[in-house]
Amino acid sequence: MRRWSGFPGDNSDPSIRQWLAGVLMEAGGSMLGDPRECAAMADRIMAGVDDRSRTVLDVLERRYDEAELNRIGHWLDQVLAGIPVQHALGWTDFRGLRIACGPEALIPRPETEEVVQWFLEGMEAVAQGHEPGNVRVVDVGTGTGCMALAIKAARPRWEVWGMDISEAALELARKNAKDLGLDVHWVLADALDPQAADWPDCVHGIVSNPPYIPRSEAISMAPHVRDREPGLALFVPDSDPLIFYRALAQRALHHLRPGGGMVAECHAEFTREVANCWQLEVGDSEVLCDLQGAERAVRLIRP
Fold first, then answer.
1. What is the structure's pLDDT at 7?
2. Residue 1 gets which letter from DSSP?
3. Is the dihedral of CA 46, 49, 53, 59 positive or negative?
4. 232 vs 103, 164, 175, 179, 190, CA distance in Å?
């Protein structure tokens, strides 16, 4: 039985989309800060039924039947209950790949797509002079596998590794790899364990979106992030916010070949400290800014 009885009589795509955004806006809450966010959330929910572009849907004069409206209403209920829309739908888009999502791993975010692009750009010079099949890269703290899989999709002949301390996250990453038909080496490993022997001996590139949020910031975070995504992938001790970046620097010293590149997403308040840490320990580093001008990541090239 349909839980939502307030669907508009007009079941066209624009009408249902507008109605959804209105319900979300009326509900408010921590996830829904302004009309644009509500419209974007409505678009995500609608994509669960039909993820073609709105231009295509308009041309086709797309309308939704009762079964489809029931699904939309079910996802709406979950979102209004505080469940991230990506968990409600079970997937999100990442650089054109459909990535399955769940509470086992962080939800892939648009800003991390930029990190992948920066990594690929930095690797252009690194990969020159090497046969593509001989280029090896490692994604540390892979989670859903979104970065490793996006890199493999963009550079099919590279050897790509994805590592995580969570077996549950790796199972999700393996599922995504199977669904996408992409071959990645998945390894259970602790990024903070210097004795871990699971790394390949020599790599050309390292990419990571490690935990970087000081634990004290949890209180100010949106509940659907703080309570619904794994703290293991989010938080670091207040006393040592660079703990993972120092570990990455040590891995670079031992495993990154001369001329190799490394990129890691960072907390905006610590990017300069990360760059300085890497500069002192490994080689030349630079801070990278996203499209909004926020300092988002650090890239390193080992001399």
1. 86
2. -
3. negative
4. 11, 11, 21, 26, 12
